[in-house]
Amino acid sequence: MALHCGRSVCNFARNNKPMRAEKAGTLRVGTSSWSFPDWRGVFYRPQTPADQQLSFYAQQFNSVEANTSFYALPAPKTLLRWLESVPEGFTFSLKAPREITHEKRLVNVEQATAAYLEVLRSLGPAAAPGLIQFPATFTRASDGRRLAAYIDSLAISAPEIPLSVEVRAFDLMTTAFARFLLDRGIGFVVVERTGQPDTFANWQAAVESVGTRQTLHMRLIGNDRDPLPDDKIIRRPQDELLDKWAKRIADLLKDGRDVYCYVHNPFEGHAPETVRRLRARIGQYLPLPDWNPTNGRSEEEEDGGQMSLF
């Protein structure tokens, strides 16, 4: 797999020179999905209808990772309903369909990829970086050339769409691959997951070599191989990891870099509370603006039971 940037593709890289940050970066943080049965009566009020959970969620956090798109892309009417449920400034990180990455493994996926990119375009300013996740069996040794060609095609066909790539094969968790992505204006996802290396230093080294104020896209997953009995409470606190990431995130924000962070339930047991715990730690290093959206459905509206369909 060629990990050096060709001239034609490099034209799509973000070539901003390093400079002193005039203002802090933006933190967008949320959970992986917003609909879990165990959140009812804990995060959501018991009477909150399922179709109003996103509206309530978006009053608490400013971004969400939508995993439903991994199984099937949302229909236009679903996208419209999502956008109508959230306030201005809220963003969605949509996971690429498994057909592309896990089933066809980048073979004959032009149509599926075009459909995914069109969904991201439809989100407009509500689009956080789209998540293209590859399985651990998708390696540099076996699939590197195909992966390189696919990344090049994305850089050429969709330079305006924010995208990030997550790999789970150790031979792709490298500074060289991170730089390969960043050279093409595509993010390298940093993951905190039990049994995987910490690739933050790889991302950081790649950013420094490319010379851009690249956004960090990160996911706090934890031990997803050891399921907890439910998703209701913090069952295995990760204070040291939260402290580590809070300091890293704060430093990036101070440097003017934007951060997208998504927390999974297995990380501590109840992702909404973990998000709050993480924000509180970051706030010890620099003040974070409150998320006080001016539109969208209010908590009082949630109390009303059924709401108008229009």
UniProtKB/TrEMBL annotation:
Annotated stretches, region: Disordered: 289-310
Domain of life: Bacteria
InterPro entries: DUF72 (IPR002763), UPF0759_sf (IPR036520)
UniProt xrefs under Pfam families: DUF72 (PF01904)
Name of the protein in question: DUF72 domain-containing protein
Species of the source: Caldilineaceae bacterium SB0664_bin_27
Taxonomic lineage: Bacteria, Bacillati, Chloroflexota, Caldilineae, Caldilineales
